[in-house]
Amino acid sequence: MTRRFGLSLEAVLKTLAVAACYYVAGRLGLLGRLTVEGVIVTPIWPPTGVALAALLVYGTVVWPGIAIGSFLLIASLATPQLSTLVTVAGNTVAPLCAFLLLRRAGFRVGISRLRDGLALVFLGGLGAMLISATAGVGLQVVTGRLDTAEFWSVWLAWWVGDAMGVLLVTPLLLVLVGATGPLRLRRWKEMLVLALTTLIVVPLSVLGELSLLFLVFPLLIWVALRFQLAGSMLCALFASVLTTFEASTQQGAFLNLSAIEVMTKLQAFNGACALTALLLSAMVAEQRALRRSVQNACRELAEVLEHLAAGETPPDLPADPRADDSTRAADRPRDV
């Protein structure tokens, strides 16, 4: 009885924590909102990343926290109505479907394989977020707040924003909770140089009137090769957030562009950053794991050869079964 109550209390606390994190992430995401066809959209919607990370770490037991956080977030912006339940349902079902699809595909939270990165992109991000985008924008059309001719432009912006939340926020949260393994700070000098370079190159690329956004990608490649997921996703998120805020004011690389052009350029940049950081980090991690396994196999083989050369039985190999048979035969009593 006590154990069951303890587990229930733990589940309630996790659910409330997920709801709080979802709400805070939503408020932060709204700081970089844009207007497309009169509808407010966010190029990066962090709550989707928070929701999927919570499901990957804690399981489906915390799904009510996603619904509660979504409802509180909508209630903070407008008076809740019956149609609000449709948006809440879409925001809850989409991460749940992403979690189930990833689990079916054998996804590992460490994202240590290229197939894990591809699964997160196409199943968790681009695939499952079709649900939330369709439910949210479809509701706008049904209630008459959005014209049918404007459906696809708003739907595309909504869908990409939800997907970017998964691709940029979920991996970083998995790193922070230790699901991808312990953080190693042995190369702290290189990390310091890289951090200073990031703080200089990214603002220079984004804030300048010239379109120099391409300068971010060599930096992302460097980080992914040296520090894998932890460094590359942090760098990609910093670049995407800074670019989003610059696009919301239509300054720098987004000067004199229409709303559709701003959204197209911004989403293409954010998507390229997320894919470069995520897939390259997963590929490097997989190659390093393969190299370590080959090195371990070679080390074990060398030890076996040393024992064989010395005429000894290797410790991991069984002794000669014929010797055991002869010994047992010698120990058996003979008939007189």
Structure description:
The chain is an all-alpha fold. The protein has one domain (2-295). It is built from eleven helices and two strands, in the order H-E-E-H-H-H-H-H-H-H-H-H-H. Helix 1 packs parallel to helix 3 (63-75) and helix 2 (46-58) crosses helix 4 (84-104). The relative contact order is 0.10. It comes from Streptomyces longisporoflavus. Pfam families: MASE1. Residues 319-336 have a biased composition (Basic and acidic residues). Keywords: Cell membrane, Membrane, Transmembrane, Transmembrane helix.
Could you give a short description of this structure?
The protein has about 325 residues and is mainly alpha-helical. About 75% of the residues lie in helices and about 0% in strands. It is globular, with a radius of gyration of 27 Å.
Shape: globular
Mean pLDDT: 82
Poorly predicted runs of 5 or more residues: 326-336
End-to-end distance, in Å? 69 Å
* Estimated structural class: mainly alpha
> How large a portion of the residues is in β-strands, by DSSP E?
under 5%
Q: Fraction of residues in helices? A: over 70%
* Domains (count): 1
What integer value in Å does the Rg equal? 27 Å
Secondary-structure element string: HEEHHHHHHHHHH
Number of strands: 2
Largest sheet: 2 strands, antiparallel
Widest β-sheet, arrangement of strands: 1-2
Helix segment count?
11
Transmembrane segments: 50-76, 82-102, 114-136, 156-179, 191-221, 227-245
Subcellular location: Cell membrane
Keywords: Cell membrane, Membrane, Transmembrane, Transmembrane helix
InterPro entries: MASE1
